[in-house]
Design a protein that fits this description.
With 79 residues, this protein is of the alpha+beta class. The protein contains 2 helices and 3 strands; from the N terminus they run βααββ.
Amino acid sequence: MALKKNLYRLTGLDGFPHHVLDAPYESIDAALKAAKLWCTGQGLSCTIKERGIGVQVLAGNGTWRTVCYPPNCLQHSLA
């Protein structure tokens, strides 16, 4: 029996797909890397509310479950 791979997505703090990073990710590491790159680049010009990101995993029953919120995306820029 083959193991099923998890599928991840990035969301806003409201739980809806992220307005820029709405794409499937094959691992939590890939999702976190995309979030970090966006938050330290294009996301720096956004408000804290717009920068907040959640990581969700697709559950076996077809629903999305939040697994974490990358803290670096919720911090103010030091610039």
